[in-house]
Amino acid sequence: MDMLATFLRPVSGLLADRLSATYLLMAVFLIITLGALPLAFEPALWLFTIGCLAIAASGGIGNGVIFKLVPSFFSKQAGMANGVVSMMGGLGGFFPPIVLTSIFTLTESYAIGFMAFSQTGLACLILVIWFHFHGKLHLSREVIDSPPYRCNDHE
């Protein structure tokens, strides 16, 4: 699955150059939501495989799309922003296995963990849709371009 996600990262950059990156991100979160949902119900092996591959593919595509979006919102701080995004991606690969293991230890089932993963994808989908259609994405540009606040400006 990691190979699939890794292979799709450059492909997703190409897709993000040709299509709207925010619409691609919406599709990524929709696929994660729908892919993780059946995993919570301990499906047959073929359905489990499809769900895992869909999550891996959308995760790889999402990685490339995010790195396409970062410079458009943080043009002056693209290096620093990419560093923070990479760090968060590392944490995203670190915590889910720990959370799934902890949930399995407590409940002897992965159902709650996969349901939480699905609902996290749904929450991210809703946020991206809200930001996109309510014009909130331009706020980052205003914050970056505004002059810094100084404590002694009132004097």
From TrEMBL:
Topological type in the membrane: Multi-pass membrane protein
A GO molecular function held by the record: transmembrane transporter activity
Keywords carried by this UniProt record: Membrane, Transmembrane, Transmembrane helix, Transport
Stretches that traverse the bilayer: 21-40, 46-67, 79-104, 110-131
Entry annotated with the keyword DNA damage: no
Ranges of residues in domain Major facilitator superfamily (MFS) profile: 1-136
Cellular compartment(s): Cell membrane
SUPFAM superfamilies linked: MFS general substrate transporter (SSF103473)
Example of a GO cellular component annotation carried by this entry: plasma membrane
Gene3D superfamilies given in the database record: MFS general substrate transporter like domains
Protein name: Major facilitator superfamily (MFS) profile domain-containing protein
